């Protein structure tokens, strides 16, 4: 069977990891790279021996053989860029976290994809980590018993110079704060592991940088099951990254996942010997950023399988929508100053709001 051709649009750090993951996956190949800044695209083009473009319209017109576009542009541009790929060119799209800034954007993209007969593949690569898979299996089988409490802790360092790297960083329109950018995978995992959330109560502050978004969140939440949870998310820790973990207290034991990217099974009381085999060392990963882990390769293998009709892609539309809905609930709670229920269609007034001045910077001319 012919390999699927993938093009990368947006050549930041994460795209280097996508390129390496594609190269290591059977049934798929990197066909082209594109970035508004030619120098950025040229780096990956030279490394992977593929053509580089500074305009994705020209790329897709000149290379109709491209099957899938991986959208790795600033978060607030995902919706516009994905819609162009879908509506104008009929391409399948892979969309990096947080997929889209608003649940309504996901719905409009899904509607467009259905009309065009193409698919959207959200990226939540940490679900593939061995530690995460082992704990999920233990929760589903009853090995850990009934869930009682969940605790998410992300204590990272993002100084002012990080936010000053680009105009989209630190904005509600195109980035979101620590919860949307750095903690989105933990927000997804607290659902993936614990099940649907009923309501949340969050307080947000900006403490470590001059930005419009939050860099610190403290929250409580309640699951539909009755289990309780807490979330602490900050990029105001100094001078370094200290912790990114999720722990689950259950009726039959405790499980804690930590490491640089929820890659270490640190505590697993039903079977302590399971910790070593279900932990992964991300520090020595070749290329760009150990924080990304190995999950992108497994994700692209699942994309190949889904495109061939061998098995469903594991993150379906409802799954992605529910994670985005939970993300917005944290912001809505801060806006309301009280508990809020997870209501379908309810969105934050801040997260993902329009900012044409910033969008124009990252807009590709036709």
Task: Provide structural commentary.
The structure is a single chain. The chain has two domains: 4-123, NAD(P)-binding Rossmann-like Domain (Rossmann fold, 3-Layer(aba) Sandwich); 126-280 and 316-341, Dihydrodipicolinate Reductase, domain 2 (2-Layer Sandwich). Helix content is 34%, strand content 22%. It is built from twelve helices and 14 strands. The strands form two sheets. The protein has an eight-stranded mixed β-sheet with strand order 13-12-11-7-10-9-8-14. Strands 3-2-1-4-5-6 form a six-stranded parallel β-sheet, sandwiched between helices. The chain is globular, with a radius of gyration of 20 Å.
Mean pLDDT, to the nearest integer, reads 95
The CATH architecture term of the largest domain is: 2-Layer Sandwich
Helix content: 25-40%
Largest beta sheet, briefly?
8 strands, mixed
Helix-strand sequence: EHEHEHEHEHEHEHHHEEEEEEHHEH
CATH topology of the largest domain: Dihydrodipicolinate Reductase, domain 2
Oligomeric assembly:
single chain
Briefly note the structural class of the backbone: alpha/beta
- Strand content of the residues, in percent? 15-25%
Number of domains: 2
CATH superfamily of the largest domain: Dihydrodipicolinate Reductase, domain 2
Question: How far apart, in Å, are the first and last alpha carbons?
Answer: 34 Å
